[in-house]
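Methods, example record. To illustrate the input and output format used throughout this study, we show the complete record for Transcription elongation factor, mitochondrial. The sequence lines were provided to the predictor; the line carrying structure tokens was produced by it.
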Amino acid sequence: MWIVKGILSSVVLKGHYSLFSRPPPSSLPDYALRFLHFTCCRSSKIMFSEFDSSNASISPELRQENAKALDSCYTEEQRAVILQRLNTATESELEQVKLLRGRKSVNIVKYRTRHGPFSSLESVINVPLLKYKSAIMVFDSILNPDNKRKRNKGKVHLAKFIKPDVNRAHLEDASSIISIVCGTNKIAWAHMDRARTVLDWQQAECQSFMKGTYLASDYLEDISSVISSFPAADFFLVEKPSISPQNTSLFPVMVHLRTVEAMLFALLSQAREPGSPPKVLNMMRISVGRHFDLMVGDCRTSGAETLRKMMTDSVMKRDPRVLFPHDLVLKHRNSFQMSSRNKGEEMCDALLQAVAFFELLQE
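The corresponding predicted structure is encoded as:
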């Protein structure tokens, strides 16, 4: 059944009268015929009684109006600034623009290489993952790079990615953090500084996890052993899992993760003076997934491919997104292949969480 937008002013008769045929004057009043607009097949070519919907007089007008929509939102000078940035910036420079981190910056560079420089703002939405609304935000960010930072100075909104609430200035002053991710049988952590240089990166097996009756003393012994190797850092960032309590099949896993999370907070938190920020923070797992475009619906996919690219860029590029020491690249270069996914998934997530923390603070 066709979904018809608008009202057909003519009367459709059964028999030999077609949809666009005028009935005899004696039978019905003289109504003006109007074109049908089909919302589900606007770009397709459909014929009705010698009427070509793809070449109708209204379609080119609509296409022309849409083609001018983005470009007409900006002055000639603003369009020149935006196109200059998009046509000349490197991948790492594009990642500094809001919404262009990860795959979007890669797609822009690939599109330029294949099709040449962008000739109009409208052509930008041909890039995969960039649609009308996101393109507007990208353009505004290029024209006003400091606006958002000035507006959001103060506290980071709880709903975004950090809990508990912390003054943004304290987070921005952090010289290094330790990102911690817990799995069903191991704990992984990454030590990273403000320049996104990986200082250390490890994981440890925990023999008591998900065993028997979840004996608290065994959990405490394993977790204490892991954190005893942590270096000094300004903040400890613990991943907040996104398992729903309604998913009863994963209830044992959720209890395990919450138990480890509570012990990490207790063991890593120190007595602090009134007004000083907490040192142990939660970071939403979903926020990290959205930052790296790893979400499929409500589920987060593996970030192994993203991490492998970061490690490669650290060796090949002069200004990489993340700087890995040479010994860590050699040590972990084969840890994130498909055949060893379960071996290094927690390490992968810990590293990505640290990168997302510093990059989100720059927005």
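Annotations derived from this record:
The chain has two domains: 70-143, 158-362.
The chain is about 40% helix and 15% strand.
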